[in-house]
Structure formats: C-alpha cells, structure tokens
Amino acid sequence: MERHSSKWYNVQSVPQSYTFPPEERPGETPIIQICHKIPVIDLEKSLVSSSEKMETIKQLLQAGQEFGFFQVINHGIPEDVMSQTILTFNEFFDMADEQITNVPARKGWIYTGSEQEVKDGVHLWRDNIKHPCHPLEKCMQSWPDKPASYREVVGRYVAEIRKLSLTILELISEGLGIESGYFDEQSQVQLLSANRYPPCPDPSLTLGIPKHFDPSLITIITQGNVSGLQVMVDGKWVCIGAVPNAFVVNIGNQLEIISNGMLRSVEHRAVTNSREARTSIALFVNPTPNCIVEPTKVLLNESNPPLYKFILYKDFINASKAFGIHTDAIQKEA
C-alpha cells in the first residue's frame, strides 16, 4: 500500500472523501481571524524576582482557568533549535515519494490525508508523522534516518521541550500548592506528532484535525509562522496567532483532573488555508503509564470535594481508545 504521496493534495477542488459534513465543517472562518484574548506569557520574568514569579504563576493559572491555552515567550529554548526543527520536518515532508515510502514502519507512523479516515469515509487534510520519545536515547534509534539530520535535530528539540515542560509544570504546581518536583518523576514527553497541512482549494470544507481534547498533562506546540490552530472560546472557534518564537501550551485532561477542574482542558482543532503550507509540531507531556491520576489533595475540602475519580493513566488511555480518539474520557464523580 502506498504510504505517502506528495501529490495527493494537488487538486483543483476538494474531493468528496475530504469534505466534512456541513455540521462539522469550519465554514468561512478566515485564517486571519486571531484571538487576542489568549495570553502570551513571558517566562523570563519569573526569574527576575519573587514578585515577578508570583505574577507569572498567576497568569498561567488564570489562562488555564479561562481558556485552557496560553503562549509562552522567552522560554529559554534557542531560536535556532526551533527553526532547525521546523526546517527538518519540512525537509522530511518534502522528500521524494520513494524516500518516505521506504521508511520502515518501525521508524514512526507516517500518514497521508488519504490514509487518515476520521469517520464515514472522510479524511484529514494533512500529512503526519508520529513517534514515541521516551526513553529518548532508545526511541531515537527507531526514528527516521532521512533527512540525515533528523535524529540529531529532533532529539535536541525533544530534550529542550522536556526542560520547558518541567519549568511550566513546576510553576503551575507552585500555584496549586503541590509539592516542588512532583511532576519530575510523574511526567514524560511521550509522543511527538508533526503535521504538514498543504494548501487547500476550499478550506471551508476540510479539517486538518477535528475537534478534540488532549489526554495529556500539557501539550507543547510550535506552529511556525502560519496560524491554523483554533480553540473554542465562549462558544466560538477562534485562531491562535502565530507569535514569533513562541510555544502554544494547552492544558490536557490529566492536569484538569489533578487540579480538580481548576484548570480546563478545552476543545481545539486545526484548520487549513488556501495560500501556504503550514507545519506544526506537538509534543505530548503525559503522566507515566502506571501513575494514578486524581485530584490533588491540597485542593480538596468540604466546600471543594473531588470532581473526578482516580484512574491509572494507562487505563484512561485505553478507555479513550474504546470511545474514540477524539472523545473526552474524563471520569467525573457521579
């Protein structure tokens, strides 16, 4: 079976197999529609003084409460690491058909739009590669070896994201009153998913990724210089702007559980555009498989009882798969 074709999207009109039902289509939502409400948080300020650190924590918690999303700048990851990683994935997706076709299955899950059926025969408008990232040194050996720089560049990127994830989770932990270092052993950068969304002749009919919740603690995303990520805000879909050298961070189901609903996991999706290709890279920071996920006890009292049942993370994932990949599987107390 052909696993990749760089020509599948070179069409004059959207094929029926890529056309979503009317109720699920993004419709006429211009890509320039930007949500200026989503906070952009300067992490460097948390290093200036204790008062600036507390202000940063306040901003993180408020963004998690109101939107479930925020962007971070001055995060400590070198600009060249970000740009080289984007360039490496662009090179990967641009490789000749036969080069990608010959990538062994064990080196990642590579999908084209024609292979990514959502339901009822409808396909996603994207090329995608997924692969595990933990433990990093072991996983790197099974990553693609073309382009030649892939393992080195992407491995360095994942290591940097690991450090950033711990910084963000530590600040959130302090805001929630959880002991310092709680997430050091309880979290892993488990999965990378990189997407190439080609230009689409009619973006109002297609989706790069349908609406969903992330089953992670947090997800850290770079979307380059092209917007396309949309989040549900006040019942409306709005785009998150592509801020130079910023990372988009969203709260996942597990952090919603741990915070007992104080932080929200929010629906989001990816739309296409007719002008240029867009590349995004998402890294999913998850609990360890045997970690018990439950509301942190420091937040619980008579007026704030637990809203969620405790569950092993691996059982949560299995339940999510049973209900479908885009189903919110949070188990609330009856």
Automatic annotation (TrEMBL):
Kindly state a single biological-process term from the GO annotations of this entry. coumarin biosynthetic process
Classification via PANTHER family: OXOGLUTARATE/IRON-DEPENDENT DIOXYGENASE
Q: Where does the record place the Fe2OG dioxygenase domain? A: 187-287
Give start-end of the signal peptide.
Answer: none
- What is this protein called in UniProt? Fe2OG dioxygenase domain-containing protein
Q: Which keywords label this protein?
A: Iron, Metal-binding, Oxidoreductase, Vitamin C
GO molecular function per UniProt: 2-oxoglutarate-dependent dioxygenase activity; L-ascorbic acid binding; metal ion binding
Q: Which family does it belong to?
A: Belongs to the iron/ascorbate-dependent oxidoreductase family.
- Pfam families associated with the record: 2OG-FeII_Oxy, DIOX_N
InterPro entries tied to this protein = DIOX_N (IPR026992), IPNS-like_FE2OG_OXY (IPR044861), IPNS-like_sf (IPR027443), Oxoglu/Fe-dep_dioxygenase_dom (IPR005123), Plant_2OG-oxidoreductases (IPR050295)
